[in-house]
Amino acid sequence: QVQLVESGGGSVQPGSSLVLSCTASISWFTRDVGIMGWYRQAPGEERDLVAKRTMEGVEEYVDAVRGRFTISKDKEKNTLDLRMNSLKPDDTAVYYCYAKVWEALRGWKTYWGQGTQVTVSS
User: φ, ψ for residue 110 (rounded to 5)?
Assistant: First the structure.
């Protein structure tokens, strides 16, 4: 069982920046973590992909955040970070960290954090 805990959310004004961090109960640098990333869910909407990164370092961003958001790993803190710049009201959502982990007896299993709220308004 893998535990994921997000932090860093908050209420900010348009144009501001935030860094979300996801701490895991396993190393983000182990080869067992095949894919890692962030989803978000706005009120009344489905949970949608924001950004993801494969174990090999291939990154993918949805069009709405490309050029403004950056996904990265911090080895010292063992966190998966989402740096969000030039925030817009449309970025308001609950942000969820996820990891697709290989487990010897169960195969690939996806884990989710509990979510952290990001609110962008003037």
Answer: -100, 130
- From CA 13, how far away is CA 113, in angstroms rounded? 25
* Type and span of the H or E element at 45: none
Tokens matching residue 36: 């890692």
Per-residue pLDDT tens digits for 83-114: 999 999 999 999 999 999 999 888 999 999 99
How crowded is the C-beta side of 5, counted as CA atoms within 13 Å? 6
What is the band of 65 on the pLDDT scale with cuts at 50, 70, 90?
Answer: very high
List Cα–Cα distances, 45 to 42, 64, 94, in angstroms: 5, 15, 11
Q: How far apart are CA 81 and CA 23, in angstroms?
A: 9
